[in-house]
Amino acid sequence: MSNTNAHVIVLGNEKGGSGKSTTAMHVIVSLLQAGRRVGALDLDGRQRSLSRYFDNRKAFLTRNGVKLPMPEHRVLTASAADTLAAMREEERTAFEAALAELRAANDFVVIDCPGSDTHLSRLAHAVADTLITPLNDSFVDLDLLADVDPDTMAVRKPSLYSVMVWEQRKQRFARDKGGVDWIVMRNRLSHLDAKNKRQVGRVLEKLAGRIGFRLAPGFGERVIYRELFLNGLTLLDLGNPAAEVELTLSHVGARQEVRNLLASLKLPGAPQLKA
To answer: If you compute the radius of gyration of the chain from its CA atoms, what whole number of angstroms results?
Structure first.
C-alpha cells in the first residue's frame, strides 16, 4: 500500500461512553500486529481517552521491560482563538498538518473523535475512508441515529448525527469523488436474549438501508475491556509472553468478538490477524 494512499479510519459518535477509544485501540493494535504502519490521531484534547490508553501502555512496557507494538501518535486540542472564523481556521490548519504527516509515514491512520459535535470531529468525518460508529445496544443510544416511533418502532426521521455524516460524505465526494464506508457496531451487547435487544436490532436493520451504513458485531458487556485499559493492553496482546497476562477462556471469547469486528471492517489489504 502506498503511503500517499493511507487508509483513514475514523471513530465517530456524538455520545460519550460508547466505546470509541477501546475500539480504536483494538483496531490499531490489530493492524500493528499484522505488520502495518499505523498513525493515531486523538481529537479529544480534553478527555484524551485514546492518549491516556497509549500513556498506560508505555508505562506498562517501561515497568516490565518488555516490547509491544506502538503507533505513531498525535493529539489535537480545540482552538482558543477569539472568533469562530479564527478558531476554525486554526483547527483546520492543525488537523491538515497532523493528518498529512501521519499519512506520509503510515499505511493506516486511525482518528478518535470526541463524543460531541465539534469542528475537529467534522473535519475528521469528511476525510474518512472507513467510519466506525460504536453504539451501545439501547434505544437511548439509537436516538443518535434516528427518531423512532415508540408504538410502531418505525423510523420517523434521521437524527442530527446521521444528517451530519451525510453532509460530510457529500463534501468528501465533491472534493475527491471518494466514498465513506460507514459501519455501525452494536456495542456492549447483553449475552441474554431480550425483547429490547431484538427490537434495537430490527430498527437498525431498517435504518441501515435508509441512511447508508453497514451493521457490524461489536463487543459484549465485559469487565476485561475496562481492566485492560489500566495497563494499555488489548485482548490481542493477551497470549503474547511480553504482555505477561495469562489467557483465560473468558478472554478467548472476548478476543473472538474483536476478530469478528475486524473481519467485518473489510479493510484494504485484508490484514491477517494473529490467532
So the answer is: 19
